[in-house]
Write a structure and sequence with these properties.
It is a single chain. The strands form 5 sheets. This protein has a 9-stranded mixed beta sheet. It has a 3-stranded mixed beta sheet with strand order 10-11-13. Strands 1-2 form a two-stranded antiparallel sheet. It is mainly beta and 251 residues long. The chain folds into 2 domains: 204 residues, 3-Layer(bba) Sandwich (Glucose Oxidase, domain 1), CATH 3.50.30.50; 38 residues, no CATH class. The two termini are 13 Å apart. It has 4 helices and 18 strands.
Length: 251
């Protein structure tokens, strides 16, 4: 299952039999990672008259109604429609699904004497310094890093975010897709400013096709470096979709 791919950065070899899934599963109930006080996902069997969509309850098939909000429940990929006045959907924006990708690790540091912590521009510059040719996407893993991120309850706990100067650098470097292990690239409470979202998408000046993916998780065994990224989203006509980004190490 090995393949050679011609990329804008040259010819690379990857092994499709060794995917690295960096998504967080959408678990039912309170065990699911959660942010912004949004309700947890629920999975309920469809029921009408005597029919119930649950084999364990005597039904002929399993058929569940699923309730979730992508922005607060697990890994999700969003487009500029998240902040746009007009209807723009992730299904209409994300038309290509494979990209060269840089994975970097940076610390979350105190932000201007507040309880909040952020990713700083200087730390991004240091992490990217050794990369001769930048990829099309950027994956940011923040420190400290542990599997607690798989079930974290972020609401009211001052989750980290991307400092506006750091996001300005990401835009200046030309990254088309940004993936972070944070619940949002902006602070949980910012009076609706969403400065980092606006900086990345340059809205309303442009109709951007770039995407932001939030709440990924990279185990410590995943080294920094160059990867091939594959996006997997649902064909949902909304600003965001639950997603399953997959990395393939470049040999």
């Amino acid at each position: 299952m090995k393949a050679q791919i011609e990329t804008p950065q040259g010819l690379v070899t990857i092994d499709f039999s060794s995917p690295i899934d960096i998504s967080i599963p959408l678990l039912a109930g309170e065990s699911c990672v959660n942010a912004f006080d949004l309700p947890a996902p629920s999975y309920q069997p469809f029921q009408v008259e005597e029919f119930i969509g649950s084999r364990i309850d005597g039904g002929p098939v399993n058929c569940e109604n699923i309730f979730l909000n992508p922005h607060g429940n697990g890994t999700h990929t969003e487009c500029v429609g998240h902040i746009a006045l007009e209807k723009i959907t992730i299904n209409s924006v994300l038309k290509h699904f494979v990209y060269t990708t840089d994975v970097i690790t940076v610390p979350l540091v105190p932000y201007e004497g507040s309880p909040n912590k952020s990713v700083r521009r200087s730390d991004l510059e240091a992490a990217l310094q050794g990369i001769a040719t930048l990829g099309q996407a950027l994956v940011i893993r923040t420190l400290p890093n542990s599997d607690a991120k798989l079930t974290q309850k972020y609401s009211g706990n001052h989750p980290g975010f991307i400092d506006i100067d750091a996001m300005r650098l990401i835009h200046e470097l030309g990254y088309e897709h940004l993936l972070v292990d944070l619940p949002s690239v902006d602070p949980e409470v910012d009076n609706g400013a969403l400065l980092a979202h606006h900086e990345f998408w340059q809205y309303p000046q442009t109709q951007s096709s770039k995407t932001i993916t939030e709440m990924v998780y990279l185990h410590e065994s995943v080294a920094d470096g160059r990867y091939i990224l594959q996006f997997q989203i649902a064909a949902i006509e909304s600003d965001a979709s639950p997603s399953k980004p997959i990395l393939y190490a470049v040999e």
